[in-house]
Amino acid sequence: MTYDVVILGAGPGGSRAALEAAAAGLRVAIVDKGSFGGTCLNWGCIPTKLLLGGTAAHPLLEVQKKLKTAQGTIDFDLTALQARKTRFINGTRQALEKQLRQAGIEVITGTARLAGPGHVEVVDGEGTRELAARNVIVATGSVPASFPGLAPDGEAVLDSTALLDVTEVPDSLIIVGGGAIGLEMGDFFSRLGTAITIVEGLDRLAPTEDPEIGQTLGKLLKREGWAIHTGRRVASLSTVEGKAQLRFEDGTELVADKALMAVGRRPATAGLGLETAGATLLGAGWVETNDHLLAAPGLYAIGDVNGRTLLAHAADHQARFVISHIASGSASSASGYPAPVMPSCIYGHTEVMRAGATVAELVASGHDVHVSTSQLIANPIAQAYGTTGGFIRVLWVEGQVRGISAVGHGVSHLVTLATVIVSQRWRWEDVHGIIFAHPTLDEALEAALLAPSQKV
Amino acid sequence: MTYDVVILGAGPGGSRAALEAAAAGLRVAIVDKGSFGGTCLNWGCIPTKLLLGGTAAHPLLEVQKKLKTAQGTIDFDLTALQARKTRFINGTRQALEKQLRQAGIEVITGTARLAGPGHVEVVDGEGTRELAARNVIVATGSVPASFPGLAPDGEAVLDSTALLDVTEVPDSLIIVGGGAIGLEMGDFFSRLGTAITIVEGLDRLAPTEDPEIGQTLGKLLKREGWAIHTGRRVASLSTVEGKAQLRFEDGTELVADKALMAVGRRPATAGLGLETAGATLLGAGWVETNDHLLAAPGLYAIGDVNGRTLLAHAADHQARFVISHIASGSASSASGYPAPVMPSCIYGHTEVMRAGATVAELVASGHDVHVSTSQLIANPIAQAYGTTGGFIRVLWVEGQVRGISAVGHGVSHLVTLATVIVSQRWRWEDVHGIIFAHPTLDEALEAALLAPSQKV
């Protein structure tokens, strides 16, 4: 028997591909080691959101205490938070597996590797077998990256997966890496009383965003008591006498109860035999894909493994494209994978949001860029919460919106609205065609859209 | 000297009209008794949002206490919250007055009435004078409605304006009226420990929304400990021995420390002499307007007074239309005021949001309506906050979105996105063209858009 599609990995990309393929009447098998839902559900977006959501009252109370409008204390029970998180994740994982089976998908818990084009070798509790497939989709995702001298050791130096499961609140935490993972974990532990120190080799936090975003984010977190070291390179990070000890290249040291290594991720492609099916691996093992997300004839790579965008909703979107490509007979004349407007968020009390391009990306494409900005302090909802730091900026090319980014409390709520506006490349008159409800944080986006723009 | 435009009332509608008129090079005067910013800023949307925003930590903590993930107490200082609110409102009011003056607008603090077409009689500290105007815009707004036997007495029976200024937390509060004002005030005082009883003559809370919204809202608020009496008519409400005493028509009674009358609003048009300029007043004094928001030649009425939509952003939008109509020479051939997709929200811990039509409105227009729904419990962000009650529903006519409404925690964040979707009358394929970031509450809206729909 030959499957229409065999999928390696049941994260957001693989699961979506399987469900879409089954809905399209294709014969589908999906192989996963058992962590249905992938990094996002098990060790990524979802557990961090559960921990941040469950503790959201804390920073709001702290703001009011500073304003002297409230007194009080909140004591979180980390064990109970972890238990609730685990319950939710387990339930969702089981529900996903059930959904896959109920859709008529052959669900295999085991490991898989390619043994030539269209041949997938599966090892599970029942032994080894080979699946024949007209199409193979690699969706095995990524794992935390580490570097020599900085590797998590499971003692005081942890990766995000291990830190998500600690049951004792560290008094102090060093975070190496100023991206989403480090920032979100830092925010969570700061609410439990942990002293946070964050270290980023580049010159600012959130370094994939325009510089103004990361600079303001750093200022706001400093005000909340974080120690921030940007533009400093780490020479070593290890457990010394039970504590995490970080040494900078300039010889200075930091010591804390725990350290989190969160310096990016690498593709989970080792040992998959992708080369046997004609795939090319780049750099740390990223799968090279063409315009149709094909790594070789009949071999697609979606989600983190192709290195395009390491976000769950990007994998989901690529999955839909690939199944539609397969279902339509992989017509080579079909148009390639569209570069959609990609939303991204860093969650927490102080958030970062972007839809569309950065200034650097637009300039690199040869565009003249104009920027218009609104400050959150002018917005009544930001005032109402006492969370007035931050801003929203809009990037314009020839009078059309090409990127929207923001930093501040609650700005993740604007991300889909911003995605629609950038996708449709709104002009001024489009903004005037919509009534923005008053009072909303959305009005800060309206204000940014209507503010006078400056050439970058 | 003849003004191009004289505006009565400096609330959201009047102020916007003045600024737009000045920007268009018109000669403008605006007359207000002194409460620049109107009801919205001084006694409406803004003070309620400041009180709700400042106390938002409380219900979030209560949720976690029920989940046994947190312990703690928060004590709000009502005097300090009131002081912060007053400071912000005063500052914003002064900033608005300054902005009007700096735009070259003649700003008059006083009372005004019409004395025939194009003649406005103004009384201020310097006496009485008459202004000649090519166009007059009435934007005097509305005031809380009251009824015989139920009138606020300033003792235990208060209107929303008076309740917004109390400095002692009542142990118990009866709210008459299940609309936005009553619900928001109830939410605020419940956070301070006040026991809330809400009374609504119609069969559900939020009675301007589809029945399912108000029914679910009632269930969620009951779970939070509110006593809810719907479908019961009030015979009398008065202060008896310092307490508020409510008697239902069936003879049963309720007693509480305070009562809030929040049963709607009436237009502030008494004594304005509108009839002298040819206007027709309807019902409680609403100004009848034509397709161009004209009450008579050269006399416009915008905002609450025309009774179309009692919302600040509706007044703002009407102001822009009217000034554009005046600036273009009031060409009678110009198209009339468009019926824009109107967003509305009820704010608080459990919110209500709508953009576009209700089922009843669509059915009344002769449409076949289909409804698709998603429950918030399936959304990971709702799960993260432990606020899983509520849902989002989408109304479809011939495959196009015509209305979106929602009830639950955080749903006000979706209102502008919903407004855009309804304005553009999205179809299924439009939803697929946008990547919804994961995880966001926005995905619950995506799920509602993509859910199978049922004929109403």
Which keywords apply here?
homodimer; alpha/beta; disulfide bond (chains A, B); 6-stranded antiparallel sheet; FAD/NAD(P)-binding domain; dihydrolipoyl dehydrogenase (NADH) activity (chains A, B); FAD/NAD-bd_sf (chains A, B)
Strand order of the largest sheet of chain A: 21-22-25-24-23-26
Supply the number of structural domains of chain A.
3
- As a percent range, the share of helical residues of chain A equals 25-40%
- Oligomer type: homodimer
**What low-confidence regions of chain A span 5 or more consecutive residues with pLDDT below 50?**
none
Structural class of chain A: alpha/beta
User: If you average the pLDDT of chain A, what whole number results?
Assistant: 96
| Biggest sheet descriptor of chain A | 6 strands, antiparallel
* Helical stretch tally of chain A: 14
Radius of gyration of chain A: 23 Å
Q: Quote the CATH topology of the largest domain in chain A.
A: FAD/NAD(P)-binding domain
Strand content of chain A: 25-35%
The CATH C-level name of the largest domain in chain A is Alpha Beta
| Cα shape of chain A | globular
Total DSSP E strands of chain A: 26
Q: What distance lies between the first and last C-alpha atoms of chain A, to the nearest angstrom?
A: 59 Å
CATH architecture of the largest domain in chain A: 3-Layer(bba) Sandwich
CATH superfamily of the largest domain in chain A: FAD/NAD(P)-binding domain
If interface size is counted as residues with C-beta under 8 Å from the partner's C-beta, which chains form the largest one?
A: A-B, 71 and 72 residues
Disulfide bonds (chains A, B): 40-45
Binding site for NAD(+) (chains A, B): 177-184, 200, 264
Keywords (chains A, B): Disulfide bond, FAD, Flavoprotein, NAD, Nucleotide-binding, Oxidoreductase, Redox-active center
Cofactor (chains A, B): FAD
